[in-house]
Specification:
This protein is of the alpha+beta class and about 120 residues long. Helices cover about 30% and strands about 25% of the residues. It is built from three helices and four strands. Strands 1-2-3-4 form a four-stranded mixed beta sheet, covered by helices on one side. β1 and β2 form a beta hairpin. The model has no long low-confidence stretch (mean pLDDT about 80).
C-alpha cells in the first residue's frame, strides 16, 4: 500500500454503520465485563424509531421498571456516532440522584414505564 493510499484511508476514517453505533450505545450504557452488580443496568431490548436515534430499554436498581432511553446514533452532520462517553459517565449519577426525571420525554411507549430523552448527550 502506497503513501497516498494510506493518507486517503486515514482521511476518510473507518466505515461505520448503524450497527456499530447501536453496539457502542449499548456498551456505553452497560460496559462489557462490568463486574460490579450494584447499580448495574440491564439492556432488555431496543427500538430504532428513526435512523438518527435508538431507544434502549433498560432496567435496574433505581429505575421504575423498564424505561426507555433515547440516545443519538448520528452526530450533527449525520455521521454515525460510536461514542457516548459523556452519557456513560453521567448515567449512574442521573439515576442514583434522581436527575433522570429532568430528561423525561413526552413519548408514550407501551414497552416501558417512562421514556427519557438523552439524545443531546
Amino acid at each position: 500500500m502506497g503513501t497516498q493510499e494510506v493518507a486517503r484511508l486515514l482521511e476518510a476514517g473507518p466505515e461505520l454503520d448503524l450497527t456499530d453505533a447501536l453496539h457502542a450505545a449499548v456498551a456505553g450504557i452497560v460496559p462489557l465485563g462490568e463486574s460490579e452488580p450494584a447499580g448495574r443496568l440491564d439492556v432488555c431490548g431496543f427500538l430504532l424509531p428513526v435512523q438518527r436515534s435508538a431507544r434502549l430499554y433498560v432496567a435496574g436498581e433505581g429505575l421504575s421498571g423498564v424505561v426507555g432511553l433515547d440516545v443519538s446514533l448520528r452526530d450533527e452532520e449525520g455521521a454515525v456516532a460510536v461514542g457516548l462517553t459523556g452519557l456513560a459517565a453521567a448515567l449512574p449519577s442521573l439515576i442514583t440522584d434522581d436527575q433522570l426525571k429532568y430528561n423525561r420525554s413526552d413519548a408514550v411507549d407501551p414497552y416501558c414505564s417512562d421514556v427519557f430523552d438523552l439524545t443531546y448527550w
